[in-house]
Amino acid sequence: MRVPLSWLNDLLVEPVSARVAAEALGDAGLTVSRVEGVGAASPHVVVGEVVSVDADGAVVRVPTCEPVRVPASVGPLRPGARVAVAMAGALLPDDAPSGTVRVPRSGAGAVLRVGEVCRARDLGGDGGAAVPLPPDASLGAPVAPLLPAAAGDTVLTLRVPGHLPHARSLAGLAAEVAARAGTSVVPDEDPPASGLRAAPLAVATADVEAAAVLVPEPAPGAVDPQVRRRLQLAGLRPDGPLVAAVRAVAYRTGVRITLHPSSPGPLRLAVHADGPPGSGPHHVDGVRPPVPGEPPTWVVVATAVRGARPGPAAALREVCHAVGADPVHAAAGGGPDGPRRVLVLDLAATARRTGLTLGADEVARLVARVDARAEPDDDGRVRVTVPPSRPDLRDEVALADELVRLAGVGDVVASWPAPLHRRPEAPRRTLEQRVRRALLGEGRQELVTSLVTRADAPTGEDDVPLVPGDGPRAAVRSDLAVDLARRAAARPDGGRVRVFEVGGVVSRDGRERRVAAIASRGPAAGGDPAELLRDVARAVRAVVDAAGAGRDVALLPADGAAPGGVVVVVRGRPVGRAGLQHVVRRAHRTTVAAAELDLDELVAASAAPRGRAPAVPVRRSGPHPALTRDLTLDVPGGGPSALELLDVLRAAAPLVTDVRVVDSHVRDDHGVTRCLTFRLTLASPWRDVTRAEGNAVVAHAVTVCEGRGARVRR
User: Which residues are in the B5 domain (predicted)?
Assistant: First the structure.
C-alpha cells in the first residue's frame, strides 16, 4: 500500500513529518518498508544551468563530472537559465502502475546523459515545459525550497496485516497516527444531500449496510487535478472522472465502492465487502433500471460493515460531490443484525501475558478506538463486545494482542511470562548425542575403544592421577580419561591432538557407568599446561551446556590432587574431574590435559532444582532478535564467586533474559586472580532491543559488579 504523506496530513489537525508518521504506524503494528520523496521532494532533484542548446536538445551543467544531455522535447530553453534537473535515482510521477518512475543513468558518447530536466507535470503542474527557477539559485541545491509544496510529495510504502482492515484506508491510518503523535483527526464534513428520498435496498447478508445511486456520466476533467495526482502516487490509475472519484473516496474512507453500467431490467448485484468470514458476496436488490429518455447513467454501489464511519450513503454523497453530478435515484438498506461476540478479559492474566498493567477504564478507552464496548465486572474481569468489523478478535489471546497494538508496541515493558511447567530433561541417550555434536563442533576427533583392556597394561611410574583414589587398572576398563590420555600421548603425529570418547566404564563396586572423556595434547608432544587446561575446560562447559545446565557449572580445586586438578560441580553435585596427566613413554614424558564426566550424574544434576526461579529460554526464532554482550571481569582472591556474579547480572535489568559463563581461567601475575567472561542475552518479545539499551545495561552491570569487588578488564 502506497500512502502520499500530503493526503494523510489533510486528515490530521496538525500535520506530521514522514519520520513521525513512519514511527507511529510501525508502533501500531504496520510495516513501513520505504519512505521516498517524489518530484521536488526527492533529494536527487537539484538546480541546474543550461549551457547550450542545439537541434538534438540541450546540455545542462550541474555539480557532476559529466554534463547532462536534455531531450529537445522538454521545451524552449535558453542558455544561462536555471532549471530543475532530476539526477539518476530521482523519483518522478508517471503513468506506470506504481505511479512513479526512477530516472535511470543511460546514454553514451562525449556527453553522457545522467538525468533529465523536469517538466511541469513532474513537479505538480501541467504541460511539458521546463519549470524556471530563480536566476540566483545555487547550482546543485535541492529545488524543494524554491517551489510550492504541491511540487513534491513523500510516499510511504506500507504492509498492512490482514487482521487490520481499517488500516487499508487513509481514515484508518490517520486515526492510528493521531492516537500516537499527539494530534487529532479532522472531523468529516458530510456533503449536502441531494434531496432525493432513498428507496429501500434489500441486503441479505447480516451486519452489512449498502447504498446505491444512479449517476449520469460526468464531464471530462470533473475531478480535481490534485486528487488525480495523489491517486497516481498511490498507484491507483485515475481512468476517467467517475472512476477517479470512486477510487479516491474508497481509498480515503475504506468503504467498498463498485461501479456498474446501468441495464434495462432490475438489477441484482453481487458485491464483496469486508464482512464476517465466510459471508462471501453480498447480494443487493432494489436498484431501479434507468427510465427511457434519461442520459446514460452509472450505478454506484457502496457496502460496508455496520457501524463503519463514514457509512456507504455518506461515501456515495462524497463521490457525487467530487464529480459535480446529482444522482437521479438513490437507495439504501442493511442486512439483519448478526450475533455479537462477547469476550471476557482477565486483567491479571493479560498483565502476565503482555506486560501491560491496564485498568478497566483504560481497556474501555483503548477498545473504543476499534468500536468495541467494554463493561467491567466485580472480579477483575472486563466483558468486551466485539464489533462486526473485527472478525479476527475471536478469543482472549487475540484481544490481548490487540490491546498491545492499541497501547503501542514501543511502550510495552520488556518482560517474559512465567513458564507453566518445567520441561523434562532429555534421557541419557539423547544427552550422548548432544555431547557428541557439541564436541565435534569444537573440532575434536572422536575415538572408539573397547571396554575390556589388558590387565597387564603398562603404566608409567610418573603418572599423576587426576584425583587421588584411582586404583590399579583391571581387565575391565574403570577409567576412561586415563586411557584416553595415554592414547593421545601415543599419537605418532607431532601436531596438536584434541580427542574425546563417549563410552562405558565399570567402577570397583561392579556398576557400569556412561562417561564422556576429553583429552588435549599440545604440538611437538608438549605444550603450555595452562593452555591445555583451558582448552579442556571449554570442552567441559560445552558438555554441561549440552545437558542444559551451562549456567550452574563450577570447576573447583580437588583436595590433594595434582596441580591443575579440579572437580566439575553442577548445581552443587560433583559430576566429573579434570586435570593434567603426565604420560611417560620410552623415557619421554608427555603432558596431556584430560577430563571425565559421568553422564548419569550430569543428567541427575541437570534435573535437580536450582534453588531459584527457572530461567525462561531466549526465543531465538521469534520476530525480535536477541542482543548479546560479553563482559570480562577480574575477580581477586576472596572476591565473589561465579554463582554470586551470575545472580547479580541476571537481576541487572528486566531485558536480561540469559547470563552464561563462556570462559574462565586463572592468572598468577599479581596474586591469584580469576578471569570470568559472562555473556548477557537481552531480548524482548514485543520489540527489538537497541544497541543503546544494551550499552546501558552493560554499564549498569559493571557498576554493580565493581561494587561487589570485581574489576572490569579494560
Answer: 338-414
**24-38, 226-240, 485-499: which has the highest mean pLDDT?**
24-38
pTM for the whole structure: 0.54
Handedness of CA 403, 406, 407, 409 (dihedral sign): positive
Give the closest residue to 114 by CA, choosing from 140, 147, 77, 76. 140
Q: Could you please report the per-residue DSSP string of 323-392? A: HT---SEEEEEE-PPPPPEEEEEEHHHHHHHHS----HHHHHHHHGGGT-EEEE-TTSEEEEEEPTT-TT
Q: Residue 714 and residue 702: Cα distance in Å, rounded? A: 12
CB 162 within 8 A of CB 1: no
Radius of gyration of the chain (CA): 38
pLDDT at 257: 86
Distance from C-alpha of 211 to C-alpha of 100, rounded to nearest angstrom? 34
Separation between Cα atoms, residue 123 and residue 319, nearest integer Å? 27
Residue with cell 532491543: 689
C-alpha count within 13 angstroms, C-beta hemisphere, residue 461: 2
CB 315 within 8 Å of CB 253: yes
H or E stretch including 432?
helix 428-441
334-365 tens-digit pLDDT: 888 888 888 888 888 888 777 778 888 888 88
C-alpha grid cell, residue 390: 473485527
Average pLDDT score over the chain: 76
Q: Which residues of 141-167 are buried (b: 16+ CB within 10 A; e: fewer)?
A: ebbbebbeeebbbbbbebebeeebbbb
Q: How far apart are CA 121 and CA 130, in angstroms?
A: 9
**Top-confidence residue, 261 or 682:** 682
**Letter for the amino acid at 49?**
E
Cα atoms found within 13 Å of the Cα of residue 121, Cβ hemisphere only: 14
Strands 573-585 and 566-570 turn out to be antiparallel
The percentage of the chain sitting over the pLDDT mark of 90, rounded to a whole number, equals 3
**Inter-residue contact 151 to 144 (CB < 8 Å):** yes
**What per-residue confidence (pLDDT) applies to 518?**
93
Q: The cell 547480572 sits on which residue?
A: 649
Cell of 590: 608427555
Angle between helices 360-367 and 396-407 (to 10 degrees): 80
Edge-first strand order for the sheet with 2-4 is: 2-4, 152-159, 31-39
Cis ω for the linkage preceding 523 (within 30 of 0)? no
Cα distances (angstroms) measured from residue 530 to each of 222, 493, 510, 537: 87, 22, 35, 10
Dist. CA 420–CA 405, nearest whole Å: 25
Quick: pLDDT tens for 106-149: 544 334 455 678 888 888 777 777 888 888 888 888 888 888 88
Least confident of 469-478, 499-508, 645-654: 469-478
The owner of cell 552493560 is: 698
pLDDT higher for 621 or 532?
532
Q: What gap in Å lies between CA 434 and CA 548, rounded to an integer?
A: 10
Print burial letters for 301-316: b (CB count within 10 Å at least 16), e (below 16).
Answer: bbbbbbebebbbbbbb
Q: What is the 3-state secondary structure (H, E, C) of 394-407?
A: CCHHHHHHHHHHHH
Nearest 5°: the CA angle 371, 377, 379 is 140
CA separation for the pair 431, 516 (Å, rounded):
11
Span 422-456, pLDDT tens digits: 444 446 778 888 888 889 888 888 888 777 655 44
Region at 504 (left for phi over 0; alpha for psi -120 to 50; beta for the rest): beta
User: What confidence tens digit (pLDDT) does each residue in 660-705 have?
Assistant: 877 777 766 556 677 888 888 888 765 677 888 888 888 888 888 8
Q: How many residues does the chain have?
A: 714
Instruction: List beta partners, residue 153.
Output: 38
